[in-house]
Amino acid sequence: MSDSMSRPQRRIRSFVMRTGRMTPGQQRALSEQWPRLGLEADGQPLDLNAIFQRTAPVTLEIGFGMGDSLLTMAEQAPERDFIGIEVHLPGVGRLINRAHEAGVTNLRVMKDDAVEILQRQIGDGTLDRVQIFFPDPWHKKRHHKRRLIQPEFVALLARKLQPGGWLHLATDWENYAEHMLEVMAQSPDFRNTAPDGGYQPGRPAFRPLTKFEQRGERLGHGVWDLIFERVTTPQPD
Questions:
Q1: What is the pLDDT averaged over residues 68-72?
Q2: For residue 109, what pLDDT is reported?
Q3: Coil, helix or strand for 131?
Q4: Residues whose CB is less than 8 angstroms from the CB of residue 83 and which lie 6 or more positions away in sequence, other chains included
Q5: Less crowded by CB within 10 Å, the N or C end of the chain?
Q6: How far is residue 225 from each of residues 76, 95, 172, 211, measured CA to CA in Å?
Q7: Is 152 annotated as a binding residue?
Q8: CA distance 98 to 104
Q9: Is residue 136 annotated as part of the catalytic site, yes or no?
């Protein structure tokens, strides 16, 4: 067998590790507040009830950016617990810093590849919601294979969600929105909650309006929200 055949295939990643300058506050938050607000991506299964010291519905956000909207959601829904995953350290540091300042207790942060965390550390049927807002659209056609929302990934998310749980997607790229809708419509594990079987009629009230989104609206950019419910039986064709 040749070397190329014997080596395991490298998984296509949906993100690029970009370096960014961290502020002193972000660096201090990472070093001082990580033991309280951070969760290690060490491959060990997470005991969510023990982490939050209670039993509550858990929302997982993948790719929270600078974390402003995730922090707002955690503040506005104290009855829920939130975990955010992000690979870029300035965003991780900013969210931890602001969460500490706000005294938020229902939020934890992880810094690693979300796919690996889901596969190794998140138990099946333990999540109430998964939200992915404005992921990298990889707008060039030759890069579409790098988009996060793909059938295999959606199937992985379905295993982690409880029956009745939500997968909430949002994008400001129409082509990616169409791709998301097509992938989700083909999944037997999800049901579209939109009345017309398409996109949500507007931004759900519980999803905060981000500065990024406000800027896009001023420029005339559209935003598409999709909310799909985890079902227990395959949907009819």
A1: 96
A2: 98
A3: strand
A4: 39, 58, 59, 60, 61, 107, 108, 109, 110
A5: C
A6: 20, 24, 9, 17
A7: no
A8: 9
A9: yes
DSSP-derived 3-state class of residue 67: coil
Q: What is the pLDDT of residue 216?
A: 73
Question: pTM of the prediction?
Answer: 0.88
Q: Give CA 195 to chain center in angstroms.
A: 24
Contacts of 102 (CB under 8 A, 6+ apart): 71, 75
What is the average pLDDT score of the chain?
89
Residue 4 — very low, low, confident or very high, per pLDDT cuts 50/70/90? Answer: very low
Q: How far apart are CA 198 and CA 168, in angstroms?
A: 13
220: which 2 tokens? 């005339």
47 is in an annotated binding site: no
Residue 1 has pLDDT above 80, yes or no: no
Q: Report whether 217 contacts 172 (CB < 8 A).
A: no
Q: Which domains does the chain have, with CATH numbers?
A: 22-33+46-230 (3.40.50.150)
**For residues 102 and 98, what is the distance between their CA atoms, to the nearest angstrom?**
6
Is 133 flagged in the annotation as binding?
Answer: no
Structural contact between residues 70 and 64, judged by C-beta atoms closer than 8 angstroms:
yes
